[in-house]
Amino acid sequence: MVSVLGVLVLVGGFVWATAAETPDEALFAMVGDTSGAGLRGRQAGGAGALTPVMELLDPGETLLLNLECVLQPDGAPAESCRRRPGNSTFRAPLGFADVLRPTGSTIATLANNHILDCGSEGVLETVGALADRGIATVGAGASLDDACAPLELSVGGLKVGIVAYLVMGPNPANASRVSAGAASWEECSPLETLGRLAERNDLVIASLHLHLRRGWTREVPEDNRRIVEEALDAGADVVVGHGPHVAHGVLTRNGGIGMLSLGNFILGTGYNMPPEAQESLLAKLRVRDSSLELELVPLVLDDDGWPHAAPSEEAGEILRHLERTSLELGTRLEVTDGRASLRVDRHDSATHSSDP
After folding, report:
1. Rounded CA separation 170/27 (Å)
2. Where does the pLDDT of residue 158 fall: very low under 50, low under 70, confident under 90, or very high at 90 and above?
3. How far apart are CA 164 and CA 138, in angstroms?
4. Residue 166 φ/ψ, nearest 5 degrees
5. pLDDT at residue 30, rounded to an integer
6. Which of 16, 24, 49, 130 could make a disulfide contact with 99, Cβ separation 3.0–4.6 Å?
């Protein structure tokens, strides 16, 4: 094949130009829960807000994040956002979306328990605000069919299918046949969808907002592990977990990688969070036809809720915990130079699309 400098991608009516270092290679930067609600210090919008982590990102990477808030125009009536029992309200100004394209190409997953905090109109406003800024979305929509629909696009010469699901059982944030909301693991036939995506794509990513058990703890619920393994068995190559608000370990299965939780990327809720909730991971993924190469970079959130590269002592602590919990999941990580890495041979890659 002839080397290319980039690939034009049409998503939702806009065109991306995504860089590829070599033919048929995709680069991703993946992070966890990202919310513009209650941020302090730096402005909620502005290109420089992520300056402290820019040196960790490469221009050719596609950023994948879970946007756990509703985006609304300034002056939107407060009564449009109603707090539900046991659920805080996460709402941010439209300008927060301007922060979310540090590499130029971003995909926001919206399947979480806060996407319906401002009703159906809030869902549509959020999707629209992101689309206006060239950010693709998956995992929420005006109806169940819209919410469940996968995103399929080209990244670095590879055909990529992405799904996002809220794993929380019956929940008021779930979309229905006639109302807006999140894509639900229980309602969207995820295993069948993942199988179909695997048949026609080179790479399948499942973003899972895992909310079956109590969060804010380093303990990995067995239910979360089971769901991640089911997704990998069904056809996902990579599972990106979030929802517990704390970083958890990594498992491998069937030539794929499951990250049980990357923790918080941006979170300014005003909560009195436990210290471990201010520690998170940036996952840098290089995808080739024959392998998945993962590098995990420790981050810390400052008191205003913004991410920074973890100082060496804190990075060491984060990596020791990650190494230990991953080993408990049967995965041995290589830890060097303040980062953890893992390479998986894609021995089942032949089951994916081979169309020219």
Report:
1. 35
2. very high
3. 6
4. -90, 120
5. 98
6. 49
- 213-268 pLDDT, tens digit each: 778 888 888 999 999 999 999 999 999 999 999 999 999 999 999 999 999 999 98
Q: For the whole model, what pTM was predicted?
A: 0.91
Whether 143 contacts 175, CB under 8 Å? yes
Say which CATH number the domain at 233 has. 3.60.21.10
Q: Which two tokens stand for residue 351?
A: 């089951």
Query: Could you give the CA distance from residue 145 to residue 178 in angstroms, rounded to a whole number?
Result: 9
| Pair of tokens at residue 182 | 């999140």
In a domain, 319, yes or no: no
pLDDT at 170: 87
Residue 105 exposure: Cα atoms within 13 Å on the Cβ side? 26
User: From the CB of residue 218, how many other CB atoms can be counted at a distance below 10 Å?
Assistant: 17
CA distance 339 to 154: 28
Examine residue 321 and state whether it is found in any structural domain, yes or no.
no
Q: How far is CA 153 from CA 113, 136, 142, 288, 294, in A?
A: 26, 10, 21, 16, 21
The pLDDT of residue 7 is 41
| Contact status, residue 160 vs residue 121, Cβ threshold 8 Å | no
Closest CA to 310 of 274, 273, 337, 343: 337
- DSSP calls for 235-281: T-SEEEEESSSSB--EEEETTEEEES-B-EEE--------GGGGEEE
Pairing of the two strands 91-93 and 106-109: unpaired
Angle, to 10 degrees, between the axis of helix 190-200 and the axis of helix 222-234?
40
pLDDT tens digit sequence for 293-342: 999 999 999 988 899 999 999 999 999 999 999 999 999 999 999 999 99
| Domains identified in the chain, total number | 1
Confirm whether 190 is domain-assigned: yes
125: phi then psi, degrees, rounded to nearest 5? -65, -40
In a domain, 128, yes or no: yes
Q: What are the start-end ranges of the H helices in the chain? A: 51-54, 119-132, 144-148, 190-200, 222-234, 312-328
Domain ranges, residue 151: 6-308+329-351
Could you tell me if 175 and 182 are in contact, meaning their C-beta atoms sit under 8 angstroms apart?
yes
